[in-house]
Amino acid sequence: MEYTPVDIDLPDEYDFKYGPMEDHKPVHFPYNPSAWITETGQSPNQTNLAGRLSNLPLDVFWTILDECLFRNGDLTLQHEELHTILSLSQVDPRSNKYVEEYIARRKPQHFLRREVGEIETLPYNEGDNGESWYPGDALDFHMNDIDDFLGRVFQVDCPSCFAYLLNHCEVDIGNCIKSGWSFAALAIINKSVKILEYMLNHPGSFHSLSILLLGPANINFPRPTSLGLLGKFGNKEYLEQILDLVGDSLANLRLPSVIAGAFTADDLLWLCSYITPNQARRLQALGVSVTDAHESETKSNSWHGAALNGEEFLDYMKLTSRMSPLEINKNGDTPLSLALSEGRLDVVKWFKRNGLAEVSQEYGIVNEITLAMQQNSGESTCMVEELLPSEPGTYISSIRAAELLHRMVLSLQMEEQEVRQAAEDMDYDFWRLMSESIAIKKSPNIICHRNGTNAALSATVTAGSKIEIQWTTWPDSHHGPVITYLASCNGDCSTVDKTTLKFFKIDAVGLIDDTTPPGTWATDQLIAAGNRWTVTIPSSIASGNYVMRHEIIALHSAGQKDGAQNYPQCLNLEVTGGGSAAPEGTLGEALYTDSDPGILVNIYTALSSYTIPGPALYSS
């Protein structure tokens, strides 16, 4: 019997991120029935059974192939699963056609790379040159540790180390580690801009960096793509670097729908939380509409991400987005309520200014006002004030006022429980850092943090030496200066009255770069250094006992009075080997006022300069 090839009617548009059919390298498995005929001239039973698979609907047949190919979750050309697929292609012409189309065009739940031949894992034999590893301390390094070693290479962003590994392993930039993560994805996650530049200038055997960025970050799953990782793992400074690096090469692909498909709606929501309008326009030119994302599962749209951005991007959203700024997601959150939860007074004011902050005054309704009252942060009072009716002749009923007060009391009780639980979890300092702010007022709390008490012990340090201060995790949205003071105790620091201490400034770093507001600040340097800050003790100061006042001032809500948040911490030091200088200082409660230019400042607009608050820096 002669078999007639069957045409398979597939749509031109399909859910596969590499684009139209002509972009695919054809995959052919020549049909050779003679290889499947037994000595008696009959096809074996299993072949007859397999031949019946081609009578199934196409999507069912392909699902079976998915299960065959990915049942172990890891794939190489040497695995028996791939040979099962090759075998099925030889059953009859119809099956052969089905398998060819599957390899070339399938959109499986897991994922075939663009070409079957590209699905490889790294070789795991150490080879003969184990003593010649770069950068030189790898005598004990084995190939089965390559994930960790590669991680270090990407973390330090060392292109020469990366090139050496590629050469040693006899692979190129298109490969992946054992767990399936591509080199391009590792570079994106670790912000390895130099390695990405190397990959751009040294394309692989099959694909350039721009194509790899559009492919899966992990070969075992369709999502995310390497480019899509920019959403969750990026920030505006890093995104700018990536666009400068690969923007032209992506544009030259002339595949806007493919580039758009590299980002899920969730990726775009993450982007909206930090992207600038200019960056959004650059992505739009590549085919990516950042402002019109809608995540079907969570019911969130681009406004939910933009509510964590700044006023400039919100203005851009208002002009370009077709999404509703009032939409309620699956968790019951509107964009405005998300801004309230994050203490974003600037965003709340933007919504109010644009007529998008109308909330119900009806009794019993849990809305944005009640949410604002439950925050108990430095901004909560201002946010409640913004949301309450302010037009002449308007008011809220006494019942509604009583209800709001009741909710605030309940929130305070909950906060007290959280404090106790945090203390039991040995995480009290972190809780205080993240949950409290100190307004710029004449209060002893501004000296050494709220209810700060004298430390019993002092650390000994030599004048002229460096001290490294370790912070817990600092939120990257809380931009601002890092300032350090010293004050002589004139005796025992464990008993000194902190209100009598006079502080002189020994270290201060503020705004570093404001090319793209809110800019790069000292806090960004602190985060990049692993939440560490190094301070040099002046060599000229006299030996003796000192209190070091080390402080971060968060300016993310500093556009209005009492919006700046101070996070001071005090340490006792015994300075030895010093000189004779005794700098005059300033009382802790007099260091700042709420109208200082470095305290009352809007960091979301372009700043020509920034004045670090407090007295002048001591010069030894």
UniProtKB/TrEMBL annotation:
A GO cellular-component term linked to this record: extracellular region
Pfam families per record: AA9 (PF03443)
Gene3D superfamilies, per the entry: 2.70.50.70, Ankyrin repeat-containing domain
Auxiliary Activity family 9 catalytic domain location: 439-608
Signal peptide start-end: none
Keywords: Disulfide bond, Secreted
SUPFAM superfamilies: Ankyrin repeat
Cellular compartment(s): Secreted
Cofactors, names only: Cu(2+)
Protein name: Auxiliary Activity family 9 catalytic domain-containing protein
